[in-house]
Structure formats: structure tokens, C-alpha cells
């Protein structure tokens, strides 16, 4: 199709759309705004076709269609287009003008914050422009988007980001308020400047595209912040020093849209390649129902034998966002109905080191597993007794080893052994050994790791969850007398008992030290993560907000949050 033909097609479609607007008797300014929406839709269609091929014959869903400019442009390009919105913007007039026979254009009314009344795997392209900022339950939104999208489909998502709206907020038309946290932003705009928003904005932050990427990954989607192919700033950035870094930064904080595709880790054959033309999928195809993915199933194979568990590969040992979500749902069904600390962490998309540890252990414990928990004390998972009970019932054997009297109060372990791990003699090797907040107290790491090797067999996993030696809180602990440790803990964390405070050694609390000790004992590292620990001020609302905000800022700058824990998995060779 030549450029002249495309221009003629655009003019014809624009005239038909214009006639439907004139029929509504709008003021000139409103009329001009509507025409710009059609032009925007035409430009978006050009963008999609330049990257992924023709739109002819594809099925497109426009969530939040508003007055229909974008979806009218898509229909004019030969797509079967469906516009969806909560309100009726006189769609009957637009329908009658553009497609009275309903052969390629239709409109629906429904609330996209509730389950969508659409068939599974029914769209090649889903467009959502200026909708996500009103959605409070983002998990539901992304789950439904994934459900209706075809296996090789794409989604175009856009929500106002903070930096592009710094001088003119998209909803309040005020300078600088886009940089404020959502609740404060709404209070300043509506209470101080009396600028109400027509719809209630959610309480989620969109300072960059990272929040959208995180939620997309939870539902099996790859999210790529993208600028238009015709973007002038991206063309200029190519000439700058460190061009790739500048372009990446621009896409992250000032993306024109977020491109969503099926994760290549799940469907390697279905990932479009940005930057080159590939054919969009046909209007046929199906995806598996995702309801099974929502079950609270922590195992990779519920029918796996202990031998099968021992053959876990490096790709399967690790914690995914879906694993963290499942653990979180066991702790609390709805974070928004929990306390302020839980709600704040949920709003920041933060999962604690405990969540990461619980998710990793839950992934390894399968029916038939022999599990040894070293230094178990009173609890397997202090913050998640429901998960501890579930895993204790699932495994074949759970042995707790701890020299302290606290093990007498542990209701989860099948066998209680009140002695040091170095002295313990088992009746057989274990498949999984866990050390939760134990490594920092070990005086003789070589002897302890040798004991772990003695209690395992090839393929067994040892999970170490401990503090980082060079984190600020750990360094303060090492520099202060042991007699003051409980007093300091009780000032910050309520409910800390004196008998649960032990001397700190930190003789194996770096990655290099851990790897060297386990390698010498016949293990190899299968997983290692530095897990940000933002629990220091979890009991103080304002301070907790500050530490979560600092973590978010540092991560966006590519820097490591200084307070973090170590989570590692070592496999016996």
C-alpha cells in the first residue's frame, strides 16, 4: 500500500468520524479534541504496523475507548475492532456512521476492574490507554488481560508517568504534583487547588515503567517500555555518549507505551522481535486456561518422588514473582484489608526476605521429601504458620535440630533433636536442609558445613537464609556488646524475647565465604540472591515509608539497597 493510498484512507476515515462528531453538536474546542484523538489512533496504528506488520484481519480490543477515536482508526485500517468502556459515549451514533452492519466494529460496556465478559484467547491486540491509573486491583487487571490475549498477541499499555507530567499533570493539570505519592497528590490537587478528577485514581505509584513491568511478569508477560519509532528524542540520543544507557533511561521514565508480550520463558516461539517487521497472528488460536496458575500449588510436580526432587535443575531453583504471590496469599488473602504496614509494602510492590525464603523452601518441599531444619527454634516460618503447617504435612519427614529449649515449643516438626548439628546422627540422608537465620551464629563454619555434607546425598539441597555481614544493622550488631542486643532489638521490633537473642559471629555471611565453604564440602551454588530488607522501621509508619521509598529510588538508579539478606541454595555434587 503506497503512502498516497494510506493518506487517502486516513482522510476518508477521518471525515466519516468527523461527521459522527458533528451530529452531536459539540463546541469547536471539543470537536477539535475529538479529531486529535482519531489522529492519535492513526499514529498508533502506524506504530503497530511498523513493528509487527499489517492490522488487516486482526482482532483488537480497546479498553477505555472513551469517544472512540483510537478504535475508529484501527477499524479504518482493516481490523475487527471492539471498543470497551464503563460509560456510553453515544456509541450508537458512532456505530451507525462508521459500521452500521457491525461487520468490523462493535462497542461494549463493562468495568475493567472486574472480570471481563470476553472469551479467552480472543484478541490479537489489546490497547489500554489511560486506564491503569484508575485500577486498584492490578493483579485482576493483568490476569484478565493475559486471559483474553492470544498466545502470540501483543498489548499496548499506557499510563501517565511522573516525569513527563512534571509540568502538567495528566489528570489535575498542575505542575509538580505528579512527583508526589498518590494519596498526597490527590489531597494537594483536590483540597488545596480544588481540581477534582472525574474518576477515583488508584493509590499506586507510576514514577517509571518498573511497576508495570513487575506486575506483568507476575502474569507471564514480558513488558518492554517503548518510545515511538518516530521519536525525535530517541534519534538525538543515538548521537550522545553512552547512547544505549541514555535510550534505556528515556524509555524507562518517559515511555510512550509499554509493549506486553507472552514471556519467552514460557512460550519461546511466540515472542515478537521489536525493531523488525513480523506478521501479526491470524484471528485464530487459543491459550490454555490460566485458572490452574492461580491455585495455591507450591510444587513443580505434586506427584514427584524424592529422587525426582533431587534432580532439580538450576533453572527450577529460584524464586519467581508468582511464587512470592502464592506465599503472600497464604499469609493474607487481601493485603488491602490488612494492617498499614502490609498495605504499604503491597503498594510499593515489596516482598520481605522472609517471603523469598518461604517461597524457595515451598518450591522444594514435595511429597516424599526428607527435610531437616537446622536451628528451627519455636517456628519453621515465624511469619507464616499456615505455610509451615502445609509443608509439614506434605513432606515425608521433618526433623528439627536445635540445642536450645525453644525447640520444645515447636508444633510443626515430626522429630525434635535438642543438640548441635555437629553431633546429630541421622538414620538416612536428607533431601532438603534449611538454615533460617542460623549461619550468623555459627562459630565453626567448616565443621558445620562438613556435617551438612554428611547428612545429604548427591542432588540434595541446602538452603541458607542469613544476614549480610556488611549491612548497616549487622555491622552495628557486631560492634555493640552482646548484653545490649536484646535491648536494641526490643526498641525496634516488638515481641522479641531475650531467650531468642544469640551471640553473632558472622563468619560465613558473604557470598564468597559461603561459596568457598560449600564448594570445599562438595556442593555447588544453584541459587543466590541479595534480598532487600526494609523491615528495620516496619513498626514506625513514616520511617517505614521512607525506607521503602529509598529502596525504590535506589533500584531505579540501578543501585543496591544497603540493608539486605543473603538467600542461597547449594546442591550436593
Can you put this structure into words, describing what you see?
There is one protein chain. This protein is an alpha/beta fold and 573 residues long. The protein has two domains: 3-275, 3-Layer(aba) Sandwich (Rossmann fold), CATH 3.40.50.150; 311-572, 3-Layer(aba) Sandwich (Rossmann fold), CATH 3.40.50.150. 36% of the residues lie in helices and 17% in strands. It contains 19 helices and 14 strands. The chain has helices at 3-22, 28-52, 69-76, 91-98, 138-148, 182-192, 210-218, 232-237, 243-253, 306-310, 321-331, 340-347, 353-364, 385-394, 445-454, 472-479, 485-492, 511-520, 541-556; strands at 59-63, 80-85, 105-109, 123-129, 149-158, 221-226, 257-262, 370-374, 397-401, 415-417, 430-436, 456-467, 523-532, 564-572. The strands form two sheets. A seven-stranded mixed sheet has the order 3-2-1-4-5-7-6. A seven-stranded mixed sheet has the order 10-9-8-11-12-14-13, with helices on both faces. Helix 12 packs parallel to helix 19 (541-556). The longest helix has 25 residues, at 28-52. The model is unreliable at 266-315 (pLDDT under 50).
Largest sheet: 7 strands, mixed
What order do the strands of the largest sheet run in, or round the barrel if closed?
3-2-1-4-5-7-6
The backbone outline, from C-alpha atoms, is elongated
The number of helices is: 19
How helical, in percent, are the residues? 25-40%
Distance between the termini: 61 Å
User: What Rg, in angstroms, do the CA atoms define?
Assistant: 28 Å
Helix-strand makeup class: alpha/beta
Number of extended strands: 14
Amino acid at each position: 500500500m503506497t503512502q498516497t493510498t494510506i493518506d487517502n484512507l486516513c482522510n476518508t476515515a477521518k471525515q466519516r468520524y468527523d461527521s459522527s462528531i458533528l451530529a452531536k453538536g459539540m463546541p469547536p474546542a471539543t470537536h477539535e479534541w475529538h479529531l486529535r484523538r482519531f489522529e492519535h489512533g492513526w499514529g498508533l496504528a502506524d506504530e503497530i504496523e511498523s513493528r509487527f506488520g499489517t492490522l488487516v484481519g486482526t482482532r483488537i480490543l480497546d479498553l477505555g475507548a472513551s469517544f472512540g477515536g483510537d478504535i475508529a482508526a484501527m477499524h479504518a485500517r482493516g481490523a475487527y475492532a471492539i471498543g470497551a468502556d464503563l460509560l456510553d459515549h453515544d456509541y450508537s451514533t458512532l456505530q451507525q456512521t462508521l459500521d452500521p452492519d457491525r461487520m468490523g466494529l462493535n462497542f461494549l460496556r463493562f468495568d475493567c476492574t472486574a472480570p471481563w465478559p470476553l472469551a479467552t484467547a480472543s484478541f490479537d491486540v489489546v490497547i489500554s490507554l489511560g486506564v491503569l491509573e484508575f485500577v486498584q486491583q492490578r493483579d485482576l487487571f493483568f490476569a484478565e488481560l493475559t486471559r483474553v490475549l492470544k498466545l502470540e498477541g501483543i498489548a499496548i499499555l499506557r499510563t501517565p508517568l511522573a516525569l513527563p507530567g512534571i509540568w502538567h499533570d495528566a489528570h489535575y493539570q498542575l505542575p509538580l504534583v505528579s512527583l508526589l505519592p498518590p494519596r498526597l497528590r490527590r489531597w494537594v490537587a483536590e483540597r488545596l487547588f480544588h481540581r477534582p478528577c472525574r474518576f477515583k485514581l488508584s493509590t499506586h505509584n507510576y514514577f517509571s515503567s518498573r511497576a508495570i513491568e513487575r506486575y506483568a511478569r507476575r502474569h507471564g508477560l514480558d513488558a518492554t517500555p517503548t518510545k515511538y519509532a518516530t521519536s525525535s528524542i530517541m534519534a538525538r540520543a543515538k548521537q550522545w555518549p553512552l547512547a544505549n544507557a541514555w535510550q534505556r533511561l528515556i524509555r524507562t521514565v518517559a515511555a510512550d507505551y509499554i509493549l506486553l508480550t507472552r514471556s519467552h520463558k514460557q512460550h519461546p516461539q511466540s515472542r515478537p522481535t521489536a525493531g523488525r517487521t513480523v506478521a501479526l497472528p491470524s484471528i485464530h488460536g487459543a491459550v490454555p486456561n490460566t485458572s490452574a496458575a492461580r491455585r495455591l500449588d507450591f510444587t513443580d510436580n505434586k506427584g514427584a518422588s524424592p529422587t525426582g526432587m533431587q534432580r532439580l535443575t538450576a533453572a527450577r531453583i529460584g524464586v519467581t514473582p508468582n511464587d512470592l504471590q502464592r506465599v503472600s496469599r497464604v499469609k493474607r488473602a487481601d493485603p488491602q484489608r490488612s494492617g498499614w504496614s502490609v498495605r504499604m509494602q503491597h503498594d510499593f510492590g515489596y516482598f520481605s526476605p522472609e517471603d523469598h525464603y518461604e517461597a524457595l523452601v515451598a518450591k522444594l518441599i514435595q511429597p516424599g521429601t526428607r527435610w531437616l531444619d537446622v536451628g528451627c527454634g519455636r517456628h519453621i516460618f515465624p511469619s507464616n504458620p499456615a505455610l509451615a503447617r502445609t509443608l509439614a504435612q506434605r513432606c515425608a519427614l521433618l526433623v528439627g535440630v536445635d540445642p536450645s529449649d525453644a525447640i520444645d515449643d515447636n508444633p510443626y516438626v515430626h522429630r525434635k533433636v535438642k543438640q548441635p548439628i555437629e553431633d546429630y546422627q541421622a538414620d538416612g540422608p536428607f533431601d532438603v536442609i534449611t538454615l533460617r537465620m542460623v549461619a550468623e551464629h555459627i562459630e565453626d563454619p567448616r565443621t558445620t558445613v562438613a556435617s551438612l555434607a554428611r547428612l545429604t546425598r548427591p542432588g540434595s539441597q541446602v538452603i541458607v537464609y542469613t544476614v549480610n555481614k556488611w549491612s548497616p544493622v549487622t555491622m552495628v550488631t557486631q560492634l555493640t556488646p552482646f548484653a545490649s542486643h536484646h535491648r536494641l532489638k526490643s526498641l525496634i521490633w516488638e515481641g522479641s524475647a531475650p531467650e531468642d537473642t544469640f551471640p553473632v559471629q558472622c563468619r560465613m555471611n558473604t557470598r564468597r565465604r559461603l561459596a568457598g565453604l560449600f564448594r570445599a564440602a562438595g556442593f555447588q551454588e544453584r541459587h543466590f540472591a541479595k534480598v532487600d530488607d526494609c523491615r528495620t522501621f516496619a513498626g514506625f509508619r513514616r520511617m517505614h515509608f521512607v525506607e521503602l521509598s529509598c529502596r525504590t529510588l535506589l533500584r531505579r538508579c540501578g543501585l543496591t539497597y544497603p540493608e539486605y539478606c543473603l538467600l542461597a541454595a547449594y546442591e550436593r555434587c
